[in-house]
Amino acid sequence: MTDFPDPELVVEDVRLAQLCQRWRTLPTIALDTEFIRVSTFYPRAGLIQVGDGQGTYLLDPLSIKAWAPFIEILSSPTVVKIMHSCSEDLVVFNYFYDCMPGPVFDTQKAAAFLGHGYSISYLNLVRHIAGVELSKGETRSDWLKRPLSANQIKYAALDVAYLPRLYQELVAGLERSQKLDYLLEECERMRQISLAAEDSSNWPDLYLSMGAAWRLNARQLGVLKDLCIWREQVSRARDKPRSWIARDADLIMLAEKLPADRHALTQLQDMSRNIYQQDADALLAIIRDSGPIADEIANNLEGAPMSQAQRAMLKRCQQAVRTIASETGIAEELLARKKQLITLMHMNRQRGGCEQSDLRWPDDLTGWQRTLLEARLPGIIAAGSTSEGAGT
Which CATH architecture has domain 200-298? Predict the structure, then answer.
């Protein structure tokens, strides 16, 4: 194993400010977080790891108070933040610092563009690129407990120690294959997804992604829409996981059965305890006061069982994606997941006689993915939509 300097545990504001003076002059820094998110909605930060190519530094959120210099680094457009599988880390940074880091370079995403599979672990990527075997170590540690053990410190430091080397190798591979712009676009998309989750203006559409919503009528869907908004609000207000407030199945049943009073509510079996007790009045009020959604939306929800023709079209789309993945070395799931293909089909169904160039694309397939997919998928979708529209 390559030798690294002993990691430094940073617990003082003055020391953090000194380090940030140097970090703001660097082109990149490596980042990782250790947190606890078992019984809360928001993560509890236990440690922030930084690697700068010379050393590793463990920032203690339980001791440091003056974070402004570090937040400046996170926001700096000239310092690339290298992370591995960073979606949860972005949530930590956004909540703890009220700051979304950027620009971001996710080494797991980069590896997916270069033939390493869709979700290769940090350990496996280090082994493949650096030839080093790392142990899983303290994956289930209590990162809020102090003092940290020697094993915790070693494990946390190694999580960023190799990121600068991975970055160099992956950037070189992306540049050779002309995929660096694809990766940067994908990383920016990850940032925007994390930001959107906390944007309450997006909550009214959450019900559309619930798998069983297609079974409900317009009145029931109106209730489901408002129940989903309520759960987002309450989960944050109480700082409890969504499933602790109400499971998806609970919300679907409430919308489907539309209980009018407490007696009817108690007849619904196997629901979360809060629904019968703490939240009964609020839920009954939502059910009573919610209005129906537009018929146009209700009649065009995804999720209903597909016809034989639709299943055949999906299979042809998946084969096309598989072919493109083989030709480019990009993971199939990164090119287009099954759900995205179904959405693409759904958006263009019964558009008989449409030209390939007229096809509508989902928002999450409009960038680099469309650049690669539109060579094959539009012909499949257009032909299938024409057949479906003709009733064949």
Answer: Orthogonal Bundle (1.10)
- Comparing 29-33, 39-43, 127-131, 270-274, the range with the smallest average pLDDT is 270-274
Global pTM?
A: 0.91
Let me know if domain 8-197 sits in CATH 3.30.420.10. Answer: yes
Average pLDDT over residues 321-338: 96
pLDDT of residue 14 exceeding 50, the answer is: yes
Query: Using H for helix, E for strand and C for coil, what is the string for the chain?
Result: CCCCCCCEEECCHHHHHHHHHHHCCCCEEEEEEEEECCCCCCCEEEEEEEECCCCEEEECCCCCCCCHHHHHHHHCCCCEEEECCCHHHHHHHHHHHCCCCCCEEEHHHHHHHCCCCCCCCHHHHHHHHHCCCCCCCCCCCCCCCCCCCHHHHHHHHHHHHCHHHHHHHHHHHHHHCCCHHHHHHHHHHHHHHHHHHCCHHHHHHHHHHCCCHHHCCHHHHHHHHHHHHHHHHHHHHHCCCHHHHCCHHHHHHHHHHCCCCHHHHHCCCCCCHHHHCCCHHHHHHHHHHCCCCCHHHHCCCCCCCCCHHHHHHHHHHHHHHHHHHHHHCCCHHHHCCHHHHHHHHHHCCCCCCCCHHHCCCCHHHCCHHHHHHCCCHHHHHHHHHHHHHCCC
